[in-house]
Fold:
Amino acid sequence: MGGNFDNAGEVSSNIKTVLKQIGLPKDVIRKAALVAYESEINIVSYARKGMIRLRVVPDSIMIEAIDEGQGIPDIEQAMQPGFSTANQKIREMGFGAGMGLCNIKSFSDVFHISSEVGKGTHLRMIIRASSAVLNS
Amino acid sequence: MDLESIVKALNLKVRSGEDKLKAEIRGGYTGDLLSDVMANSNEGDVWITRQVHQNIVAVASLKEHAGIILVHGSEPAKDTLEKAVKGGVPIMVSDLPGFEVIGRLYALMNKTG
Structure:
């Protein structure tokens, strides 16, 4: 999966389809699609391989992005808007603007990131659906 | 306003999604940074960009955009077009620079409401 931009977005698209089938509220699906897409692009851009895991429970969904790759030496720096280590090829495609992780964080209700240099990165995001909406 | 009216008014050439031109346009968004478009554009927007590679189809489809307008004579890459045809995502092209396309589109959409 890493380095292959040809099918980038397919996992997110599948996630979106599943969430739509479940009938989750639109704003939850919108957030989940963004979180999944940015995670997917990060894996394609920076990791050797990775997986995206989706878990749906009654009041929220959890998306995890787990990769094997270079890892992030300074997470605080990586979280700064505009900071990016993307190469020219990635930037030419309109990625690598240093917005991905910030976007993931701002579209999630809970955001966890851990990383080990040379091993990989683990993102865990939770998006909550209000119970009122789910019960309606 | 639907895509078809925009195609006529701006003399756009349609490269894919000809059967989706009746789609109602709710707004527009301009950007070449995909993260920016992912975060800030809305469903039903027409997306104006100069990016031509296949990932624009994934973004437009995830965001449920009404369509994509490529400006300044840009043409979709071969695999972009294949994906757009397969996914039913309208891609339209214009020879005009982005500034002019957006200006005309904005005036048009605000005139008719």
